[in-house]
Specification:
With 345 residues, the protein is of the alpha+beta class. It contains 7 helices and 16 strands. The protein folds into 4 domains: 30 residues, no CATH class; 88 residues, Vaccinia Virus protein VP39 (Rossmann fold, 3-Layer(aba) Sandwich); 94 residues; 106 residues, Immunoglobulin-like.
Length: 345
């Protein structure tokens, strides 16, 4: 302790005072000010994510507030710093983010950790599998809390004082859909409520036209809600054809085909996002993960294929060693929209 003298009993005395202090064995109480530097451009932990926090900051918080095997929750995981630090410190963790790019960045970051103590399970809580219009309609009704009315023949219910119309969710909203609603309102001269239209995708120009029309209308304003942009999809899940060829203590995994109905549907909705067509199915795949001893409970990443550049494709063929001849092999394919497809041998 600077400025103090220690006596034979371990007490410290300041020269100008007769008072004595005893140094606490755990040291000085920590300050409530964290002095931690920013992430340098050359740091290994840097993910080029705009809101990324230093691992040293998160580590200090986790160490101070949790114990070994505690569960750490980060509802806005961003670049995955909290999950990565929690994993390194032996904590269990739950990470969430509405941004698909953040989820993909976090998964890629976690799979680079040398010793993953826990497997990664990825849940898309707003993803639904529906095969008929009624099933897709029911998903929207339950998701958004639409109040149904069995006596109503045209509209699907009410929500927050508005009439609700659920358009065919296998295609984007069109001017014809809007005109059909207007025609119905013409037959209801006493109806003054506004209308909420649920759809999956909106053709260009419709939102601007509705905004302008709503500005001029006193009643029966029409508001379109794109459930796809709100993170909800009712399209069928992606599918993959994966071949496994064993040879002694190794196995060759080949991805023969992959198709994502969600990606193909989005191509039809907004061709400014994707190219006109996908000539190579590999273009849909963001990364490939392989577990050579899959138990069915946790996915342990043994081999990963994550292209370094956005324009690069995954290889699609991998030869990996098996821990034992009867080991179960599993492949996880994550596409450009963050959807996971898991195939086991």
């Amino acid at each position: 302790m600077k400025g103090y003298k220690e006596d034979e009993n371990g007490y410290y005395t300041l020269d100008s005072s007769g008072k004595k202090w005893y140094a606490h064995p755990k040291g000085q109480l920590p300050s409530d000010l964290f002095e931690i530097g920013i992430i340098s451009r050359s740091a290994k932990e840097r993910e080029k994510f705009p809101t990324q926090k230093p691992e040293a900051l998160i580590e200090r918080i986790i160490r101070a507030s949790t114990d070994k095997d505690s569960i750490v929750l980060d509802c806005f995981v961003g670049s995955g710093t909290t999950a990565a630090v929690a994993e390194k410190l032996g904590r269990r963790w739950i990470a969430a983010d509405i941004n698909k790019g953040a989820i993909q960045t976090s998964i890629k970051r976690l799979q680079k950790l040398p010793d993953m103590q826990h497997g990664i399970a990825h849940y898309r809580v707003n993803n639904y599998d529906a095969n008929t219009h009624l099933e897709r309609r029911d998903i929207v009704i339950k998701k958004y809390g639409v109040q149904t009315d069995r006596q109503e023949a045209f509209f699907d219910g009410t929500l927050d004082g508005t009439l609700v119309k659920i358009i065919d969710l296998t295609k984007p909203l069109t001017p014809l859909d809007i005109q059909t609603i207007k025609d119905e309102l013409e037959n209801r001269p006493d109806e003054s409520r506004n209308i909420t239209v649920f759809c999956y995708g909106i053709n260009s120009g419709i939102q601007a036209e509705l905004k302008e029309e709503n500005r001029r209308r006193a009643i029966n304003k029409i508001f379109a809600r794109d459930i796809g942009s709100e993170g909800v999809t009712t399209f069928e899940p992606a599918s993959a054809e994966v071949n496994f060829e064993r040879d002694g203590d190794s196995v060759t995994v080949t991805i023969a085909d992959y198709i994502s109905p969600t990606i193909l549907a989005r191509m039809d909705i907004d061709r400014t996002i994707f190219d006109e067509q996908i000539d190579d199915f590999h273009a849909q795949i963001d990364c490939v993960l392989i577990d050579t001893d899959y138990t069915g409970e946790h996915f342990k990443i043994v081999e990963s294929d994550v292209p370094k550049k956005k324009e690069d494709f995954v290889d699609g063929e991998y030869t990996v060693l098996l821990p034992r001849p009867d080991a179960r092999v599993a492949v996880k394919i994550i596409d450009m929209l963050g959807e996971e497809t898991e195939i086991t041998e």
